[in-house]
Design brief:
- By secondary structure, this protein is of the alpha+beta class.
- Among the domains are: 78 residues, no CATH class; 178 residues, no CATH class; 85 residues, no CATH class.
- 61% of the residues lie in helices and 8% in strands.
- It has 22 helices and eleven strands.
- The strands form three sheets. Strands 1, 2, 3, 4 and 6 form a five-stranded antiparallel β-sheet that branches.
- β9 and β10 form a beta hairpin.
- It is globular.
- Pathway: Cofactor biosynthesis; ubiquinone biosynthesis [regulation].
- Pfam families: ABC1 (PF03109).
- It is a single-pass membrane protein.
- It is found in: Cell membrane.
- Its EC number is 2.7.-.-.
């Protein structure tokens, strides 16, 4: 709790120090708040000499990796940000202040258990690039391969855990005091983000992610993923092939090399949807600092992806639901969109479909028949968010990474080819994927997928068949025994009905035997005793002995 409070104070002080009041609409605040803030902001007057974008970037850098990540996401949304802010935040991609190269060298030696001189033919202590979680150094292996060595920042986990604690505190606060707290599920969202960012601290996981992504695009002309050198990978150190390519954000160089920008933008969309729907494993940190372009074939440029620390995946149900929703959007079938939302449980079951359909139409209809440059996907999301509030739609944490990646794709597409129509590019891919899910090809794929398991069960078939026959035989024996018992019970019931008159006569006889012992018959004692005895014996016979 004390750490969280301290972090709150630091954030507040950073806001004052870097004069981020420039982003506060002072004209909407009461006069006494404006006066108070004016006095508090006095210490940061000198910082105000820098432009607002630079102040925001410096503030995010000073607050640590969680906030730097936030700035990286914002930097891809030039359609939502002024140019001065977007230009400064773009520096967060790979120009975060580095830490001492000698410290990086010691981390490498500690994790790999040998000196740098024994491990590499050369190792440059000057960082090639520096990011929020790690920095990279160029090196050459003893075998001659050019590589880059990625090293986690020292003591970074402590800072991240403090920030995660702060985010949890804010999430619980939002959940309690906000009317949308339950619907937005802020605690679940923070938990998902915690899982993601903590994974970035373990480079063995990033190495595994890189290896899987590389296999998924083996021999592909769309995407190249550098080779991992597994013998040099540990928790804090990762060694991969050094690639040469043009940073995707270097638009001028791409133009100078006559790269087909339309093809490049379309291939980016195709790569994303291939990862999501065909591989169920997608790069979820696709900001420009992690993407390069191979321009050796300008007409068919090829992407190069690095930094696979944050990866996302969707299960079959999520993919099917998402594809149907997107296709319904493309076809302007808002009724289907509304029904899918209700059927999936995203909105309450009692939601009036016609009203939800109308609300979705009012948000999405204006986006069609326009090129990407005229459409702000951010504004569409904002409209959908407002619609969600009206119908109590819940945030789905498992799709947060996907939504973030879609935003990055849009931002990247705007920079590469402003006239790209994202929807027209994606629609054929989704239609083809949906057809594959229900056609003969899908059946064949399922058979192929299950074949190894079936083959493993073949030797057990005789035993399984024998066990099944034994089970059937026992079932038949039990059924025969049950049938016999039921028939016996029926006979007993019939016999009981047949003997009922005799039982009744026995009761009458016992009653008569008792009456015959009445004192008024004492004068006929001998006759009464004899008659009572006879009637009693006859009654017992009828009630007990007669079957």
């Amino acid at each position: 709790m004390w750490r969280t409070a301290t972090r709150f104070v630091r954030i507040g002080w950073t806001l004052l120090r870097y004069r981020l009041d420039a982003f506060i609409p002072f004209e909407r605040l009461p006069w006494f708040i404006r006066l108070t803030l004016g006095l508090l902001l006095q210490p940061g007057r000198q910082r105000a000499l820098k432009n607002r974008g630079e102040r925001l970037r410096l503030a995010l850098e000073s607050l640590g990796p969680v906030f730097v990540k936030f700035g990286q996401i914002l930097s891809t949304r030039r359609d939502l940000l002024p140019d001065d802010i977007a230009d400064e935040l773009a520096k967060l991609q790979d120009k975060v202040p580095p830490f001492d190269g000698e410290i990086a060298k010691r981390i490498v030696e500690k994790d790999l258990g040998a000196s740098v001189e024994d491990l590499f033919a050369s190792f440059d202590t000057k960082p090639l690039a520096s990011a929020s979680i790690a920095q990279v150094h160029t090196a050459t292996l003893k075998t001659g391969e050019a590589v880059v060595v990625k090293v986690i920042r020292p003591n970074i986990e402590k800072t991240i855990r403090q920030d995660i604690g702060l985010l949890y505190a804010l999430a619980h606060l939002v959940k309690k005091i906000s009317a949308d707290g339950r619907r937005l599920r802020p605690v679940e969202v923070v938990r998902d983000y915690e899982y993601t960012i903590l994974d970035e601290l373990d480079l063995t996981k990033e190495s595994a992610n890189t290896g899987l992504l590389q296999r998924n695009f083996t021999n592909s002309d769309l995407l190249y993923v550098p080779q991992v050198y597994w013998d040099y990978c540990r928790r804090n150190v990762m060694v991969i092939e050094r690639i040469s390519g043009v940073p995707v954000a270097d638009i001028q160089t791409l133009h100078d090399r006559n790269v087909n920008m339309k093809c490049l933008a379309e291939r980016g969309v195709e790569i994303f949807f291939t990862q999501v729907f065909s591989h169920s494993f997608f790069h979820a940190d696709m900001h420009p600092g992690n993407i390069f372009v191979d321009t050796s074939n300008p007409d068919k440029p090829k992407y190069i992806a690095i930094d696979c620390a944050i990866m996302g995946s969707l299960d079959d149900e999520d993919k099917h639901y998402l594809a149907r929703n997107l296709l319904a959007f493309f076809q302007r079938d808002y009724r289907m969109v509304a029904e899918l939302h209700v059927a999936s449980g995203w909105v309450p079951k009692g939601t009036p479909v016609h009203a939800f359909e109308s609300a979705i139409r009012s948000v999405c209809e204006p986006m069609f028949a326009k090129p990407l440059k005229d459409i702000s996907f951010g504004q569409v999301l904002l409209g959908l968010f407002q619609t969600a509030r009206r119908f109590n739609m819940e945030v789905q944490p498992q799709l947060v990474l996907l939504e973030k990646t879609l935003l990055n794709i849009e931002g990247l597409g705007r920079q590469l080819y402003p006239d790209l129509d994202l929807w027209v590019t994606a629609k054929p891919f989704l239609e083809r994927w949906m057809n594959e899910q229900v056609g003969p090809k899908r059946v064949f794929q399922e058979i192929k997928k299950q074949a190894p398991e079936w083959a493993g069960q073949l030797p057990q078939l005789p035993n399984l068949a024998f066990s099944a026959l034994q089970h059937v035989a026992k079932q038949e024996e039990r059924m025969a025994a049950q049938t016999e018992a039921i028939e016996s019970l029926r006979k007993e019931l019939r016999r009981g009905r047949h003997n009922t008159p005799f039982k009744l006569l026995g009761v009458i006889s016992l009653g008569a035997a008792w009456i015959s012992t009445d004192p008024t018959m004492l004068e006929h004692l001998a006759t009464a005793d004899l008659l009572s005895l006879v009637l009693f014996v006859f009654g017992v016979y009828l009630l007990v002995l007669k079957p």
